[in-house]
Design goal:
heterodimer, A: 267 residues, mainly alpha, MetI-like fold, 2 domains, B: 284 residues, 71% helix
Chain lengths: 267, 284
């Protein structure tokens, strides 16, 4: 066997390995289901899940619920990111303010998201505003805390260097501190993305009548495990896609600028 | 794989060096002695805004409880014995769920981490299940186990398990191979390797994973208690919604925040610091 063959075999193996656990799970699920034949209220077969995807798509429920969820997520996440950045950058510039707000931010991070649900329902009723508020709440503090940390951890040397060359304060902030804070900001975005998506599902389960979260919770009333399993898989897939999208942004920005840490690259 | 691994993935993170005081914008000089006390200022601002909203703008009790309402609700709940009961229920659940997740997750993570192929093979699999949150599988768990303690327990266990496996696995992978080679050269078997290299080497990462797991698990716990309704703090604040008892809701929220901070900052963070200092092979 030549070296080239060996390299090829290695590359194929590397691609094939991650598929194995999924394939095993699918086979165990399919074969186990065929043997045990559990009723639908216990577990659907993989085939039924496939049919359910088809059925939900044809009836338009899947598109409607997915777009309802995505709309809420975009709104809550967008407002959370913008407000977190707008407040986080100035707070990061002042070490005094940064230190001062740290405990209050920690406290609100400890109760972010789902904990606000009862009072959000009192304030906004059931539906989109409550869900958006919960997502904003989950995202904002993460972005804020990471932005503050990012701005504060930019090496003073870089800033001094630019200032020695006669740069203005605005210049230092826009050209040095914000790009320098980007790795931390993106890390905040990444956690915020995950937490926001999770909070969305939780908020929809309890506080809304449309959306993917509501879809799987309503399915529970009718013991439709096929709809639940389908919904769960779609929820996970969208979560992973969003994460992959952010990974793309990371590659285009901080990795290209050489700002990324070794650890982040190994993901 | 030195340097810092995102907190999300577990792994030990070297704390960033923070900027010294006042470079871009000037901040007033504050005497050293009162500096650590300044953290009360934002809390005072919030309380002032709260009082102002109630007194000056007359926000009704149906939208915002007064501070008095919250204190009254707390003392009532303590008097009736509800609060201690719910706190105990929540703490017991998170403790049991985390303990089970550690017992199952750490050995699994160690096993997967010992082989390079294990990580490549199971990395995406674990990532997929990390995307399936414990809250999302709650409807299924409710069908399987009903509105019971088991449902909440399984949701916490599942939620805490994934980050613990992941962090442990990554932790083992980040151990410099030289340590393993050294033991193997001296004739150490795999049990020896596990005890003397993998476990201590990954310990800092494991603790990070446990901390993450508790953080995720705590949210799953609150959500689970809201839906299942078998006592606990999540049930307490959600149940209060039915009676429109806003004082009770806010009291519960504050308590949930404080309890989590105590668990995370006073118990887990010191353990993490101590572990990283003692076993953190990643520094330097």
């Amino acid at each position: 066997m030549t070296a080239r063959d060996r390299r090829l075999r290695h590359a194929v193996l590397m691609r094939a390995l991650p598929v194995i656990p999924f394939a095993v799970l699918l086979i165990v699920w399919a074969v186990g289901w065929e043997i045990a034949r559990p009723p639908l209220i216990t577990l659907p077969s993989p085939l039924e899940v496939g049919q359910t995807v088809h059925r939900l798509w044809d009836s338009g429920q899947l598109q409607a619920n997915t777009s309802a969820s995505m709309y809420r997520w975009l709104l809550g996440f967008g407002v959370g990111v913008v407000s977190g950045l707008l407040l986080g950058v100035p707070a990061g510039l002042s070490p005094l303010i940064a230190r001062m707000v740290e405990p209050v931010v920690s406290f609100f991070m400890a109760i972010s998201g789902i904990v606000w649900l009862p009072i959000a329902i009192v304030w906004f009723g059931l539906g989109t505003p409550t869900v958006v508020f919960i997502i904003w709440n989950s995202v904002f503090f993460l972005i804020f805390a990471n932005t503050v940390l990012g701005v504060r951890s930019v090496a003073t040397v870089l800033e001094d260097g630019v200032r020695t060359l006669g740069a203005s304060r605005v210049h230092v902030i826009t050209r040095v501190l914000i790009p320098g804070a980007l790795p931390h900001i993106l890390e905040g975005l990444r956690s915020g993305l995950g937490f926001g998506w999770r909070a969305l599902i939780a908020a929809e389960i309890i506080g809304a009548s449309t959306g993917l979260g509501a879809m799987i919770y309503q399915a529970k009333e009718f013991l439709r495990t096929d709809v639940i399993v389908t919904g769960v898989i779609i929820i996970a897939a969208i979560g992973l896609l969003l994460d992959a999208g952010l990974g793309l942004v990371e590659r285009r920005t901080i990795e290209r600028w050489g700002l990324v840490t070794e650890g982040a690259r190994t993901r | 794989m030195r340097a810092k691994i995102a907190a999300d993935e577990g792994g030990t993170s070297a704390g960033p060096r923070l900027r010294p005081r006042g470079s871009v914008i000037r901040t007033p000089r504050v005497p050293r002695r009162i500096l650590p006390l300044l953290f009360v200022v934002p809390f005072l601002v919030i309380i002032a805004a709260w009082v102002l909203a109630k007194s000056a703008f007359g926000v009704s009790g149906a939208a915002l409880p007064s501070i008095g309402d919250v204190i009254r609700a707390s003392s009532q709940l303590i008097d009736w014995g509800i609060l201690p009961y719910d706190v105990a229920a929540s703490l017991y659940r998170i403790a049991l769920g985390t303990a089970l997740a550690i017992v199952i997750g750490v050995p699994l993570g160690l096993l997967l981490g010992t082989s390079r192929y294990g990580v490549i093979m199971f990395g995406p699999f674990l990532r997929f299940f990390r995307a399936v949150s414990g809250i999302a599988i709650l409807p299924l768990l409710i069908i399987w186990f009903g509105f019971t303690e088991t449902t909440i327990q399984v949701a916490i266990l599942y939620t805490a398990l994934i980050p613990i496996i992941f962090s442990t696995m990554i932790g083992v992978r980040t151990i410099p191979p030289a340590y393993r080679d050294a033991i193997e050269t001296m004739g150490g078997g795999s049990a020896r390797l596990m005890r003397d290299v993998y476990l201590p080497g990954a310990l800092a990462s494991i603790v990070v994973g446990i901390r993450l797991g508790v953080g995720y698990g705590w949210r799953a716990l609150i959500a689970g208690e809201m839906l299942v309704g078998a006592g606990g703090l999540g049930f307490m604040i959600f149940g209060a919604l039915q009676f429109h008892a806003l004082g009770q809701i806010v009291a519960g929220m504050i308590l949930i925040g404080l309890l989590y901070l105590v668990i995370d900052r006073l118990i887990l963070a010191p353990v993490e610091d101590a572990t990283v200092r003692r076993w953190g092979v990643q520094r330097g």
